[in-house]
Amino acid sequence: xxxxxxTRKPIAGKEKAxxxxxxxxxKCPGCAPNLNVCPKCAHHFRLSAVERLRSLxxxxxxxxxxxxxxxxxxxxVDTKAYKDRLQASQEATGAKDAVVVGAGTIExxxxxxxxxxxxxxxxxxxxxxxxxxTRAIERAIDSGRPLIxxxxxxxxxxxxxxxxxxxxAKICGALARLDRAGVPYISFLTDPTTGGVT
Length: 198
Description:
The longest helix is centred in the C-terminal third of the chain and has 20 residues, at 161-180. The model has no long low-confidence stretch (mean pLDDT 88). It is built from 4 helices and 5 strands. The relative contact order is 0.14. The chain is α/β, with parallel strands linked by helices. Helices cover 29% and strands 15% of the residues. It has helices spanning 49-56, 82-93, 127-143, 161-180, and strands at residues 62-64, 99-106, 109-116, 147-151, 185-189. The chain has a single domain, classed as 2-enoyl-CoA Hydratase, Chain A, domain 1 (Alpha-Beta Complex). Helix 3 (127-143) runs parallel beside helix 4 (161-180). A hairpin with a 2-residue loop joins strand 2 and strand 3.
C-alpha cells in the first residue's frame, strides 16, 4: 500500500513531432559503419550493451550466462511492482538483466567483456548483474584473458535492497583475485554513469 496518494492528475503535455536534424544519420563512405557520433559537434550518442560489444569485438563473440534473470526476493512495490518493471525492461531491451557478458577478440587479442545496459532499469546492479560480472571476472582468471568492464549505471538496484549492495563486495573480492592472478583489467565509465557501482 503506498504511503502517499496522488490527489491530482498530472498535466498532459502536448505531443510534438520530433525533428531529426539534417545529417544525423551518417555512414562512413570508407568503412560503412555508423558510429553514433554527430558529424557536426562530435557528440557521442548512447549505445546499448550489445551495440557496444559489437563495436568492441573483432567479429564473432560468445555471450555467457544469458539465461540468468532477476527475481523479486522482497516482493518490492513502489509506483509499480518490481516484477512488472523487470518484465517491461526485458521486453524493451531484449536482455534478461542490466549486463551482457561475452568473450571474443579485439585486434586478435582474446578478451572477456561485461557491458552494462542502461536501458534496463537504469543499468542498476542487482543480484544477477553482480553474479554475471563476478562470473566474467572468474572466466578472465581461469583463461588468463584481460577483462574489460563497460560501466553504464545509475547505481545499486533499490528494489533488491541489501542483496544488491552485497554485489559490490562480491565483485571487489573477485577483482582482488584477478589482480593477484596478474590478469589485466580495464574499466570504462560511459554515459551515463552516476552511481556507486563504478
